[in-house]
């Protein structure tokens, strides 16, 4: 049985996270409950930063907060001296509320609205990652009207097909993101921006996908961007000061996943950049990366309580829990795999093969189809590992189910950081029909 971070089993046979008994957590906060091992988040952040430090390369490690956004996680990222990758006005507002250093915020997105861009200027953030030609014109208009400077990166697609699920690969030529590096779009974008009086072009950005386990794709992408940077210097006497190679570093969801240590991905990028800068006498750019899943993914564990069970003879046994696709859409969306344990009976043999099903009215609401847990009993506490990324951030109120609470655990202490939604929260934005005294025929 593989445990993550600070997870362990106490003398009662209960799973603990951050030194806190998960059975106690479930009793205090209820279930479903998303629990974060904050020490593991800190450990991963330090590992990324230390690898750059050892190589003597100036760098920024930006938490890709689309994986999980909240005021509290932004506050932890600030404590760890990380930068922050946001992708919407809502994430930027959350960051501002957390008083995250504005100069370390990078704003992404393939369809930023004019209002969102104005908001970025209002907050005087550190960088906008420009994704398309319409955005270029909007940024020009806003900066000129305000006579306000803004730093930008150009997001490019380097034509790299990373080995991952089609829904989460983003670096290939056929992508909704960025300027194509091969068909001249990136050059056209560069020419529109590189000598603008209010816009400072720092360099280029790419993101080739998510949940990637090998380094070849990162190496090829780094080479492609470096060659373009060298070409721009030769043609236009322009030197890029920043090379942002994105994120997408894989984590271990099941025993079949074989992720590399954070340092391995970073070292491969460093080797490519240092080799090419030496060969072409190019100043070593500041390297930015954007880990999201690899910081919070396996730091998160979801706790569920079991309810009804159904045996289909010769086929499977269903064990239903009090959550499902409303708090974790990933299995239904793209077949994501997870590992689970019976958190209140960790010492019991985990040999019963069951399907852990959610409570949503969809046949596809299955969290794990082949879960090996202790002989299931009603009221068991099921812990599903590695749910820290793209679960709560993609959660919904499907079937009008409230979103779960979130707790941070560290050094034997637990703290509620996102309260559980109530039924009142769910109807808060509903507007009843106006009473006119006449029947309305629908």
Automatic annotation (TrEMBL):
Keyword Amino-acid biosynthesis: yes
InterPro entries: Ala_racemase/Decarboxylase_C (IPR009006), DAP_deCOOHase_LysA (IPR002986), De-COase2_N (IPR022644), Orn/DAP/Arg_de-COase (IPR000183), PLP-binding_barrel (IPR029066)
Pathway: Amino-acid biosynthesis; L-lysine biosynthesis via DAP pathway; L-lysine from DL-2,6-diaminopimelate: step 1/1
Residues that bind pyridoxal 5'-phosphate: 248, 290-293, 390
EC number, UniProt record: 4.1.1.20
Gene3D superfamilies per the UniProt record, alphabetical: Alanine racemase (3.20.20.10), Lyase, Ornithine Decarboxylase, Chain A, domain 1 (2.40.37.10)
Keyword Amino-acid biosynthesis set for record: yes
One family name in Pfam for this protein: Orn_Arg_deC_N
Protein family (similarity comment): Belongs to the Orn/Lys/Arg decarboxylase class-II family. LysA subfamily.
Role of this protein: Specifically catalyzes the decarboxylation of meso-diaminopimelate (meso-DAP) to L-lysine.
NCBIfam families: lysA (TIGR01048)
HAMAP family: LysA
Identification of the protein by name: Diaminopimelate decarboxylase
Species in which this protein is naturally found: Sporosarcina thermotolerans
């Amino acid at each position: 049985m593989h445990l993550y971070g600070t997870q362990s089993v106490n003398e009662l046979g209960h799973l603990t996270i951050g030194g806190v008994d998960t059975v106690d957590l479930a009793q205090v906060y209820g279930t479903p409950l998303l629990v974060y091992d904050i020490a593991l988040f800190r450990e991963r952040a330090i590992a990324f930063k230390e690898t750059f430090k050892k190589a003597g390369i100036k760098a920024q490690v930006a938490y890709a907060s689309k994986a999980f956004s909240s005021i509290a996680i932004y506050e932890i990222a600030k404590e760890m001296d990380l930068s922050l990758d946001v992708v919407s006005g809502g994430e930027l507002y959350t960051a501002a509320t957390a008083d995250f250093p504005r100069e370390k915020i990078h704003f992404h997105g393939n369809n930023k609205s004019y209002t969102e861009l104005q908001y970025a200027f209002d907050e005087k953030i550190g960088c906008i990652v420009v994704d398309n030609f319409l955005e270029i014109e909007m940024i020009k208009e806003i900066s000129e009207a305000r006579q306000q400077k803004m730093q930008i990166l150009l997001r490019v697609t380097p034509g790299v097909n990373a080995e991952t699920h089609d829904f989460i690969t983003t670096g290939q030529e056929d992508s909704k993101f960025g300027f194509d590096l091969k068909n001249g779009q990136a050059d056209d974008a560069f020419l529109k921006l590189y000598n603008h009086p209010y816009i400072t072009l720092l360099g280029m950005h790419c993101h080739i996908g998510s949940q990637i386990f090998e380094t070849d794709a990162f190496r090829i992408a780094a080479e492609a961007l470096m060659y373009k940077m060298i070409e721009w210097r030769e043609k236009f006497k322009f030197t890029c000061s920043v090379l942002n190679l994105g994120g997408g570093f894989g984590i271990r969801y099941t025993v079949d996943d074989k992720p590399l240590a954070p340092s391995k991905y970073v070292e491969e990028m460093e080797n490519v950049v240092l080799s090419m800068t030496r060969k072409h006498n190019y100043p070593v750019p500041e390297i930015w990366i954007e880990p999201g899943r690899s910081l919070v993914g396996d730091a998160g564990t979801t706790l569920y309580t079991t309810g009804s069970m159904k045996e289909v003879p010769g086929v499977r046994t269903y064990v239903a829990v009090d959550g499902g696709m409303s708090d974790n859409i990933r299995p239904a969306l793209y077949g994501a795999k997870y590992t689970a344990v019976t958190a209140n009976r960790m010492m019991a043999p985990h040999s019963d093969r069951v399907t852990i099903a959610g409570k949503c009215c969809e046949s596809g609401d299955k969290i794990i189809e082949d879960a090996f847990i202790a002989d299931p009993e009603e009221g068991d506490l099921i812990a599903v590992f590695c749910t820290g990324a793209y679960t709560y951030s993609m959660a919904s109120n499907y079937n009008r189910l409230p979103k779960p609470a979130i707790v941070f655990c560290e050094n034997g202490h637990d703290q509620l950081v996102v309260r559980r939604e109530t039924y009142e929260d769910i109807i808060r934005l509903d507007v009843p029909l106006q009473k006119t005294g006449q029947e309305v025929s629908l």
